[in-house]
Amino acid sequence: MAVRRGSPIDRRFAVSAARPEITISRLSTNTIIFVDAWGKPEQRFDLDQLISLPVDLRDLLIDAFREHCAGQRLATRRTAWGAVRRFARFVADDGMIRQAGDVNTAAIGRYVLWLRKEGASRAARGAHAIAFDLLRPLLLWCRRNRPGVLPVSLDIPWNAFPGRRTSQQPRRRLSADHIKAILRACYEEIDEAWTRFQHGQDVIRRPELPPKTLRGQGLDRWIWRIARIDDGMMPDVAALEEHGIKSSTLVKYWGGSRTMTQYFHITTDTLVPFFLAIAIQTAANPEALRHIRRDCLVPHPLDEHRVIIDWTKARTGSRLQKAQRRTFDRRRRYAAPNLIEMMLAMTAPITATAPSAEQDKLFLTRSIFREHARGSLRSRTGTIEHSVLRRAILRFTKRANCRIEEWNAAHPDRPREAITNFAPALFRGTVATEHYRASGGDVLVAQSLLNHASVATTESYLKGEETTRFQRQTIARLQETMIAWVRGPAGGEPAPASGETRATVLFGHDCLAPVVSGREGGERLCPHFGGCLACPGLVIPIDPEHLARILAAKDRLEQARIRLDPRRWSLLYAPSWKILTQDILPDFPSEMHEAARKLAANMPALPELE
């Protein structure tokens, strides 16, 4: 039979060499400007920062950066630009790369060595590895979309810095007292901000100008007059001056524009306590929490008093983002859902002035300056920036410590500790460690709290001297319990009656820890009690008595499979049946089954399943 031999079909996408290319050098501006979904500029980068690169390599990396980073977040794009600038510094120091074709495998190797030297001297921990990881996709884009410019033999290592996390220091933890002090300060400022906002809204809704007070105009008249200038929002200083309201008057009598703005809508200073309190309660990633949506509250399907907070984290998956969810009892005054509802009310006056891409965000702020005065592409209203949030947290800490000093002066018998500097990134590991300790050392509890796909990721948050000591104590306690069980009762202790069955015996085996340590040293029932067949600490003696109980349990499950609805049986009882038949029974010798069957026939019948 004749076989047709032909050339294989080329299914690769062809890149036309005649395709017109628009490079930055042909543009009238020397700046890369990224726009949002509505065509408004949101970020720009100065191309003069890459002046040390050869012209062809510079244009190549600019095209790669503009095309590859178009769909990234602002922070990711900013970090990627920093990686390109670092590569430009290497090219200037190296002196051996004079054109794009000189970026070969040897040049990449020299760059790795240069990064290691720079990382050991002055760069932040892991920054050199991040710089290389962000440059790699840009070079791959150049090789894929500009064939022939870079050497064909260019080999870019996937992991140029192996083992960079082996010497990583444990994450810093905040003590429980420190967390409580931060929450106390947050709740104090939340009450003050909410009271001011409610008072301001009551005044703004009045149809007529409030009457004068005995001493001058009075706060309500100022609020009412200012609200008519910019449709219920706090105008900038120039607009106030145009309407005859001097900023010096506000500073003298009412604390200035920052304080007066709190009567109209949210401010940067009043946003911080809400952000910190919600971050502690949800243990959310600060960057993901900063972009949480306004529709994040979902009613609980079973409990009318509980509310689900739903948000997304950008780094949970490359294709499908995993939802982050926590439930709270809204009957608590400072529960996170109640704080979010306050934020919704305080940001409602400024939501319409935010860019279209950010109107669905919760943590919105409005600058007291106009756009041209701030010299920024960002709108006057928008999601609070990371740098602005960091500076506002420093002011929050300073205000809280001033109140603590006043408290200590008035109550010397009940002094309070001052709040030291902290960052919201520390809350996640601190809250996870507290839950880990409260659960008796169950890493799965911390994993469920942090919503990690891998336990290894959770371990990096729990790693520390305290958790290591707690793990060793738990292992030692369980080993002592197991040794005591193997040895049996002491000579002077009577053996337990054969017919006595403890309440912790399920399916013929005994649970080693039916109760676990709770908060404040108490005990509580294990949250996984009843599911011990899947417990990694399960202990089953290999003897006919235990095999008889396992066989009886297996028979009862199979009888229930005939009577119950198949879907219900598969959902509730199939996992236990599979563990019994596939994991546990094969460990018993086959010659033991006959004797165990005789024992099972004389045992009391197990209760019916439903």
From TrEMBL:
GO terms for biological process: DNA integration; DNA recombination. Keywords: DNA recombination, Plasmid. GO terms for molecular function: DNA binding. InterPro entries: DNA_brk_join_enz, Integrase-like_cat_sf. This is Site-specific integrase. The lineage of its organism: Bacteria, Pseudomonadati, Pseudomonadota, Alphaproteobacteria, Hyphomicrobiales.
